[in-house]
Specification:
The complex is a heterodimer of chains A (about 400) and B (about 500).
Chain A lengths: L20 H7 L5 E4 L2 E4 L5 H10 L1 E5 L4 E6 L3 H8 L11 E8 L5 E11 L2 E6 L4 H8 L5 E4 L5 E6 L3 H7 L13 E6 L2 E6 L8 E6 L1 H14 L5 E3 L2 H11 L23 H4 L15 H8 L5 E8 L9 E4 L3 E12 L4 E9 L10 E9 L2 E12 L18
Parallel strand pairs in A: 3-13
Antiparallel strand pairs in A: 1-2, 3-9, 4-7, 4-8, 5-6, 6-7, 9-12, 10-11, 11-12, 14-17, 14-19, 15-16, 15-18, 16-17, 18-19
Chain B lengths: L6 E4 L3 H12 L4 E4 L24 H6 L15 E4 L5 E4 L2 E3 L3 H25 L11 H15 L3 H10 L4 H8 L4 H11 L11 H10 L16 H14 L3 E3 L4 E6 L5 E6 L4 E3 L2 E4 L3 H9 L6 H9 L6 E8 L14 E4 L3 H12 L8 E8 L4 E8 L11 H18 L3 H4 E7 L1 H8 L35 E3 L13 H12 L5
Parallel strand pairs in B: 1-2, 1-10, 2-6, 3-12, 10-16
Antiparallel strand pairs in B: 3-4, 4-5, 7-8, 8-9, 11-14, 11-15, 12-13, 13-14
The chains are: A alpha+beta (about 400), B alpha/beta (about 500).
């Protein structure tokens, strides 16, 4: 064959498959796939309700391989991560995970993620948006190596009340001692796995990370062991329901990352989003610190609130009114929470509403009933996040269910 | 920690000295720390890099009483443009040695540009507006500039807005035609920068230069009696008489910052610490912030802006020793600025090579000269000689540059090469090493639209205040930039005083 005509190896095109794809496809009765960061990710496999109740009552597998993943390694790794995020990374010991956010120079949130401290000089950062250039900019001038490992690490979230029992069945003794946000290096099916006790369901749960070549063996072992514990593969829709209940926010849904907003004044700072608890000033300069110090001293012009709404219709995309007349905000995420039996949502409210002015707030819900639209005004109450958190989340050692 | 001052000025270049003198005059106890063994920066030494300075701004001249300290100006320097047929002499709006119709249209062009630069000049003498959030305040700041342009009247305003972002090549082609006269204007528009006559924005740099109002007015180089050294000496005296301390051979290693994010002093390379609540740096923005302060005190966005600041120096300095002057070059000529570029095309060609990191075959040259004990010394500036020259600035490259400059000179002044007894070349890389000039760039950073006004040194860091409280930038990297006006130093000191620093 003419050498010049030999096709060159090409970059993978279209939507990629994660190592778990065939297993998920086998159970994806809805043929529902979403594009998550370039990978096929199930939206729903069977019914969102079954999958949601599996999160709350059984054990679930959710493929998190498409997450953006970065390794930060070197003598200045701690300095660099501390310079990037708003929490004090110096307090995070090796073998611990933490939920972090990072801000731009104006104090607006760039993204959130989970930061795994693997050792004194090595971190893994998992997040939603591509951040390689951002981290490299933060790391410029420091002795550290930043690598994107998105495609080099696979993993799945293993969440639900019976997950600890399943891992026990797999003879993972570390389950007994792992507190929330602990990391351990274990073996499942003879393969090396980084397991951490954290998740986005407000309940007991773990994340398992491994090399792509080992991924299927680990998945199969956990899935097999989970059969007597009601294990299910779940998709994004069920997860979305659980994360709203658990009080977690989603960039691009509940707020816009300051890297992606086009309109000025669309980016949001941690005080507006209600993530004040992640911001410390008791550490050396970090990105956005000066702006955050200024912002901490002024009342936010608007804030994201957890709200509870009367009756049972979820307030998707609803506008919020004061005295049923003046428009003061809008809903970003909404759900009839089957577990808490509450009609819950997140809503942005312009100051002073929600902050000082909490009464006489209403959402306007549109309902379509056999073509015809109906409008409902329902009462809004400002409540605390999260809507759902179970004592199982923190109980150590965890019970079997 | 030794020492006890109200303010530290890092670097005794002319801007550092202006800032020190202004602060000292306000009653601050000031120390100036100069890394080199002598003061003056690019104006220092017997053959200073910037031998033909624009005038120290009138505001500073009177504000610091520089007349009292012995600074006098002679008649504004004329420009002789050789390299074409015959010799063209330019003094302000008057050009001789060109066809009468060209002289007339040049006079018209010069008057026009002088009016436009006047609108710009108002912006140079004060701190630039600041962009905060694209809100009302910013709009008002921009409106101020808009108003001064509107003040030109409708016809002029339209014309100014039409040409301001265009290039000097088109402007000269349209208005006067190419030739030695246009070449001299093209040199004014491009000298020190990484842009050729055809680069967009070169009308703006020309106007900017013309807005530098020294004693000569509208862009003419001033002639301080006693040369550049006289400017330095007067500034030193001004600082000295108000009680400022000037220390040479005192290189600063680090700017010290306390836990509350304030600059509190500096550490010298010898380990000595000096404390002061106010620090003004005459070093380049990159050297000040990335080397002396350190990225750990900066947001990543600012670090990136600094990294990406255009700072590739393009001018080499040559000192040529002559046993005697050739015919065609008189002693009187040497008091002028002599441009050797036959037309704009030659300037553009010289830039073409430099754009790709190479030396031009025929650089564009300007020079003046002085008498020495043994003969004559020409101080020449050759552009374009890129700091990032391919393969680096080895001796062979310098020799090649010297040869090409001498060849260019020989073309305009026949016989000059035979009189040359020695040539000393200082490349932009040398300037970087000697003066800590990032990229060997005269202006501490390219003067172009995206690095001017509130974008100088970079967006978000205007008004001389640096991200760490108490730290100010007072060198050419700050608004309004280079050309030895002293304004960055003057404005920075003013801003520091206004902010209540060094109480």
């Amino acid at each position: 064959m003419n050498k010049a005509l030999t096709p060159r190896p090409q970059m993978p095109m279209g939507v990629l498959k994660t190592p778990f794809h065939e297993r998920m496809a086998a159970e994806n009765f809805q043929q529902s796939w979403m594009n998550w960061n370039g990978y096929a990710s199930p939206g729903v496999l069977d019914t969102a309700e079954f999958e949601y109740f599996a999160i709350r009552n059984q054990a679930t597998l959710f493929d998190i391989s498409p997450m953006c993943k970065f390794r930060i390694k070197g003598p200045d790794a701690e300095t660099v991560m501390n310079r990037m995020v708003t929490r004090d990374v110096r307090k995070q010991k090796p073998g611990r995970v933490s939920y972090v956010i990072w801000c731009d120079e104006d104090g607006n949130v760039v993204d959130d993620g989970t930061l795994f401290r693997r050792s004194d000089d090595e971190f893994l950062l998992f997040c939603q948006e591509p951040q390689l250039l951002w981290i490299k900019d933060i790391a410029w001038g420091f002795d550290v190596e930043v690598t994107e490992v998105t495609h080099d690490l696979s993993g799945f979230a293993f969440q639900g009340p019976t997950t600890a029992a399943t891992l026990r069945d797999l003879k993972i003794k570390e389950v007994e001692e792992m507190r929330p946000f602990d990391i351990r290096d274990i073996k499942i099916a003879g393969k090396r796995v980084m397991i951490s006790r954290n998740g986005f369901t407000g309940d007991l749960g773990y994340e398992l990370i491994m090399a792509p070549k080992d991924a299927l063996a680990v998945w199969d072992a956990v899935y097999a062991a989970g059969q007597r514990r009601g294990v299910r593969i779940i998709g994004y829709e069920a997860l979305e329901m659980a994360r709203i209940e658990a009080g977690f926010l989603l960039p691009r849904v509940d707020f816009i990352s300051s890297q992606t907003n086009l309109r000025v004044n669309r980016a949001r700072n941690p005080f507006e989003i209600g993530l004040d608890w992640l911001v410390t000033f008791d550490k050396p300069h970090y990105n956005g610190k000066r702006a955050l110090q200024r912002l901490a001293g002024v009342a936010p012009k608007r804030k994201l609130f957890a709200i509870e709404i009367s009756r049972d219709k979820a307030a998707h995309h609803a506008l919020v009114y004061h005295r049923k007349t003046r428009e003061v905000g809008f809903v970003t995420s909404a759900l009839w929470s089957a577990t808490t039996k509450r009609n819950i949502a997140y809503a942005w409210l312009e100051a002073p509403f929600g902050q000082n002015e909490k009464d006489d707030l209403w959402v306007e819900i549109y309902l379509q009933r056999e073509i015809e639209w109906q409008r409902r005004m329902e009462r809004v109450q400002i409540v605390e996040r999260p809507f759902f958190v179970h004592p199982r989340r923190t109980a150590t050692p965890p019970l079997d269910f | 920690m030794s020492g006890d001052f109200d303010a530290i000025v890092i670097g005794a270049g002319h801007n550092g000295l202006v800032a020190a003198a202004r602060l000292a005059k306000e009653g601050k106890r000031v120390v100036v720390l100069e890394a080199a063994g002598e003061v003056g920066g690019l104006l220092g030494g017997s053959d200073p890099v910037a031998a033909m300075p624009f005038g120290i701004h009138n505001k500073i001249y009177s504000g610091l009483g520089l007349a009292r300290h012995g600074l006098r100006y002679g008649a504004p320097m004329k420009t002789l443009s050789l390299g074409g047929e015959g010799r063209v002499e330019i003094g302000g709006a008057v050009a001789s040695g060109v066809p009468p119709e060209m002289a007339a249209s040049y006079a018209e062009l010069h008057r026009k540009l002088t009016r436009y630069s006047g609108a710009l000049a108002k912006m140079l003498a004060k701190a630039p507006p600041r962009f905060r959030d694209g809100g009302l305040g910013d709009m008002l700041s921009m409106a101020q500039l808009g108003l001064s342009i509107r003040g030109l009247g409708k016809t002029d305003m339209r014309d100014m807005l039409r040409i301001i972002l265009s290039n000097v090549w088109d402007l000269c082609e349209d208005e006067i035609g190419d030739g030695p006269l246009a070449a001299a204007l093209a040199m004014d528009a491009t000298l020190g920068g990484a842009m050729g006559p055809r680069s967009p924005g070169t009308v703006l740099t020309l106007l900017y230069r013309m807005a530098s109002t020294g004693s000569g007015g509208a862009g003419q180089r001033s002639t301080p009696i006693g040369g550049a050294a006289a400017v330095v000496s007067a500034l030193v005296k001004a600082a000295d008489s108000s009680g400022a301390t000037i220390r040479t051979s005192a290189p600063v290693a680090r700017i010290l910052v306390d836990d509350s994010d304030r600059a509190i002093g500096v550490a010298l390379e010898n380990g000595e610490g000096i404390r002061a609540p106010l620090i003004l740096s005459n070093a380049t923005p990159r050297r000040t912030l990335l080397d002396l302060l350190g990225p750990q005190h900066l947001n990543a966005e600012d670090v990136a802006r600094l990294r990406h600041m255009a700072t590739n120096g393009m001018v080499a300095r040559l000192d040529l020793d002559l046993a005697e002057l050739p015919e065609g070059l008189s002693e009187a000529d040497l008091a002028h600025r002599i441009v050797v570029a036959g037309d704009m095309r030659q300037v553009e060609r010289a830039f073409n090579a430099a754009k790709y990191g190479e030396l031009p075959n025929a650089p564009a040259v300007e020079f003046s000269g002085r008498k020495t004990d043994t003969g004559w010394r020409l101080g020449a500036l050759a552009q374009f000689a890129p700091c990032n020259l391919k393969g680096g600035w080895a001796k062979a490259k310098k020799d090649r540059l010297a040869k090409s400059v001498i060849k260019v000179l020989d073309g305009a002044i026949p016989g000059v090469s035979g009189k040359i007894t020695g040539a000393d070349v200082r490349s932009p890389a040398d300037l970087e090493a000697t003066y800590g000039l990032t990229g060997g760039h005269w202006h501490h950073g390219e003067l172009r639209i995206d690095q001017m006004l509130m974008m100088r040194p970079f967006a978000g860091a205007a008004q001389y205040r640096m991200p760490v409280a108490g730290l100010y930038l007072c060198g050419a990297g700050a608004h309004p930039g280079g050309d030895i006006s002293g304004l960055p130093g003057w404005n920075a000191a003013g801003q520091a005083i206004k902010d209540g620093g060094a109480k």
